[in-house]
Amino acid sequence: MGTDVGSASAEQTKILAEVAHDLANRFHRFYYYAEILGRLLPEDTGEARDYLDRVHDTVEDIERMTRGALSYLRPMEVRTVRVQVRDVVGSLRQHVGDRAVEVGGLESAGGMPVAVDPSRLGEALGHACRAVLAHAPDAAPLRIDLRAASDIDITFSAESSQTEALPFDLSLALAAKILRLHGGDLEVAPAQPATLSVRLPLADQE
Fold first, then answer.
1. Digit-coded pLDDT (tens) for 107-150
2. Could you tell me if 16 and 113 lie in one domain?
3. Diameter over CA atoms, the chain
4. Hey, how many other C-beta atoms are within 10 angstroms of the C-beta on 73?
5. Structural domain boundaries, residue 43
6. 3-state class of 16 per DSSP?
7. Residues 62 and 106 in one domain
8. What is the pTM of this model?
9. Is the same domain home to 85 and 68?
């Protein structure tokens, strides 16, 4: 007996939506009661306030991780349009602002076509950029390099000797999942701190 993929995805989406709704209610109740406790604590209970703040921060981290896990598990679709590589680089620059520096290879590869879902790709690039910037000093510029063959490879790295190695965490796993839906991938450079490569297949030339 065959599996109805559409029905399975619909059922999975429904279950995950129910889980997300239940968790959102639980987190909301925690924040509500934490706010009440904060108002009730006397001003001279500094240690208790510090403890409550630490608990609050921990729950926020758990909520962020939980939301990421639910996003990763939720079935995804991509609806692609043809854009140029320079448009992808432009989306990347939006996430890093004026910290983006020299873009090597844009002159030769910028006009090449790729087929992407702009919204989904922007989400993946956002996760990737935040991961790099989180493991680099605040003022470190971000270098972007392009290589083009049958695929386009975009490598971005923080230019600083003080950068840290990137852990392949849930946010990068989500970015990689989105890129794989585009036929591409994401790679963390193990020997180069705070360096990621995004690969996307070139679209057929028209």
1. 888 889 999 999 999 999 998 888 888 877 777 788 888 888 88
2. no
3. 71
4. 15
5. 5-73
6. helix
7. no
8. 0.72
9. no
Contact 181, 76 (CB under 8 A): yes
- Written as six digits, the tokens of 57 are 């921060």
Nearest by Cα to 198 from 50, 77, 95: 95
Which sign, positive or negative, has the C-alpha torsion 160, 162, 166, 169? negative
pLDDT of 143 reads 83
For residue 148, list its beta bridge partners.
Answer: 152
Point out the domain boundary residue: 73, 92, 113. 73
If asked whether residues 49 and 99 sit together in one domain, one would say: no
Alpha-carbon separation of residue 121 from 20, 21, 96, 175 (angstroms): 23, 26, 15, 8
Rounded Cα distance between 48 and 64, Å, is 24
Q: What is each CA distance from 155 to 107, 146, 200, in whole angstroms?
A: 15, 6, 12
Last residue of a domain, one of 34, 54, 73: 73
- Token pair in block for residue 152: 């386009």
Question: Do both 94 and 189 map to the same domain?
Answer: yes
pLDDT reported for residue 132: 84
Residue 143 and residue 159: Cα distance in Å, rounded?
7
